[in-house]
Amino acid sequence: MTAPSTDTADANAKLAFPIIVSIDTMGGDMGPAAVVSGCSTSAKKNPKLGFILHGPQDELERLVAKRKNLAGRCMIRNAAGVVTMDDKPSHVVRNGKGTSMWSAIESVRARDADVAVSCGNTGALMALSMIRLRKLPGVNRPAIAVLWPSRNPQGFNVMLDVGADVRADADDLLRYALMGASYARNGMDLPRPRIGLLNVGTEEHKGRSELKEAYELIGAQADAAEFDFVGFVEGGDIQGDVVDVVVTDGFTGNVAIKTGEGTASLIGDLLREAFKFTPLSRLASLLAYTSMRRLKKRIDPRRVNGGVFLGLNGTVVKSHGGADATGISAAIKLAAQLSEQGFNDKLAARVARATALAEESKR
Amino acid sequence: MTAPSTDTADANAKLAFPIIVSIDTMGGDMGPAAVVSGCSTSAKKNPKLGFILHGPQDELERLVAKRKNLAGRCMIRNAAGVVTMDDKPSHVVRNGKGTSMWSAIESVRARDADVAVSCGNTGALMALSMIRLRKLPGVNRPAIAVLWPSRNPQGFNVMLDVGADVRADADDLLRYALMGASYARNGMDLPRPRIGLLNVGTEEHKGRSELKEAYELIGAQADAAEFDFVGFVEGGDIQGDVVDVVVTDGFTGNVAIKTGEGTASLIGDLLREAFKFTPLSRLASLLAYTSMRRLKKRIDPRRVNGGVFLGLNGTVVKSHGGADATGISAAIKLAAQLSEQGFNDKLAARVARATALAEESKR
């Protein structure tokens, strides 16, 4: 982390756009130029968007000045401090004031922006978000939800938690189901999403004890919360068409997404090698170029770039650390979509209703 | 499970081959014909192999008679009972006598065969193996180890546990590391395998408490047990080249392999679709045919078909339930290789030495 220093002179100024996205321009591998370029791409596509950019004022002013379509649509909040990928979350919580990440979350807390986007250190971003935005009533453990390429008609599943916390008890898993259902409803336009609980077998007697308990809890809330509970699902169902939302603890979910990404990357490399192997296959690769591009686009993680932090008083989108302008723009698009639909307020209401229902059934 | 009835008239007969593989011919999706066909393929490739086939005598005699190269190399043990994929392990342990699975394990227990192969119900096979073969001294939880396509020079990593038990404490994880090292040494000819412990980050402070404890235990045994401990690894390293053995609990490992298989299968389907999309891409797919076959072979799960049960008094290879003759033959090849090298005795000695060392260090 570098030494913090914040200029809040323009803190009271407001941008007149329907959707304001607060953006941490530092902490990603590609630097603020890629972030500003991503904002420019998003601004072209969506006229409703305005941006609050957090980072080094001079550099951001220079970068924004180069993009004509960003004129009048950005506000810059100077924050010289940077949270690095190696900073421990606990350290950032204590000393992070004045960093671009802290400042970006602060804009959501102050309601200057509807949603924050950062490609920085995930652990630090979650820790800061929890401390500054606070958890929603009824939520003990917030979760990170991602979209995952699948055989579903919509092309993606929601999976959560993928790494906010390494533990989750049955009550947490129920909250994840409710939050995931809200996300699928608002982020993917599915009126009645199908929810599955990740396990090592689909039989009811299998798996860890907290999963059996969560199975009962989630099943009992399905009707009231308007989702279909399909029961236990396995790792092979994450890319399938039996569920829209996969619920799991953050340890398992994190291993699963990284395993899936690693597998896709290995196959991609082997595919490239295969195409280079003979003159005939090199010719084939030329002919198949557009088909391959289409496939690559279909499973390109940059297109669905953005883990969403759920269960907080405010929405935070975590973009991939290595995201380029295309990736940043995808994260902004997701943030804007959730913000426009008043997603977080709906989610909060849903969790509150479920909590009340659970309390009632205990009486 | 169907009604059992066993004929042990030929129980004292012996086959005069250096390696005897005991084979459960029932319980797989493709039936005994595929299993016998797989034996025939293996017999052609390896003249050292003899087989004890367990299942319905009449049908097996008919199937074996059709394969000239199996003449004199098979012994048939009649077992009319079949363990189905839906049978609960506890039920099979109580009532499984007379099934082909029980009978196949019995041949290893009686030392008539060196190793057993089955494509039946994994849970039942593990439960029966534990009850009949018993755990090795020093092993509390046996594990299932699989080979996984990776960027390693040998083309594969070992991962364990992938589903023998949903729990594992720090001591279990240490045993998995030792057993995985033995497997990599004997099954992949790696004199000093690199061991990694699966976690959600590579930093030492991350993850669950039992993982931090296991980290210390495994690191302390690395020199004595002749492996390199690379520390924590992530889901994306399973297909990488930083480790030869990935150690994890059976819940996480099971989700990881199924996620990896599901991802590979989705990409395969999308690839086929992409090639069908335009006349040009259809032409490309013809030109790329041999390259694609090469790629498919490289990541074909049938080539490395076989999870190995480690930590028992005897080796059991679990073949995929949907395995065809090629898959069965791969499982038999693996079984033969491990058997030939006296793998299980070496593994037992290694675990015993490590247990003594750990006891000593506690004094």
TrEMBL record, chains A, B:
Gene3D superfamilies the UniProt entry points to: Isopropylmalate Dehydrogenase
Query: Where in or outside the cell?
Result: Cytoplasm
- Identify the EC number(s): 2.3.1.274
GO BP: fatty acid biosynthetic process; phospholipid biosynthetic process
Q: In which pathway does it act?
A: Lipid metabolism; phospholipid metabolism
**What start-end ranges are recorded for coiled-coil regions in this protein?**
none
- Any one GO molecular function term: phosphate:acyl-[acyl carrier protein] acyltransferase activity
Reaction equation(s) it catalyzes = a fatty acyl-[ACP] + phosphate = an acyl phosphate + holo-[ACP]
**Sorted alphabetically, which keywords does the UniProt record give?**
Acyltransferase, Cytoplasm, Lipid biosynthesis, Lipid metabolism, Phospholipid biosynthesis, Phospholipid metabolism, Transferase
GO CC annotations?
A: cytoplasm
Its subunit composition reads:
Homodimer. Probably interacts with PlsY.
Name the family the entry cites.
Belongs to the PlsX family.
PANTHER family found in the cross-reference section? FATTY ACID/PHOSPHOLIPID SYNTHESIS PROTEIN PLSX, PHOSPHATE ACYLTRANSFERASE
According to UniProt, the name of this protein is Phosphate acyltransferase
Classification from the root reads: Bacteria, Pseudomonadati, Pseudomonadota, Alphaproteobacteria, Rhodobacterales
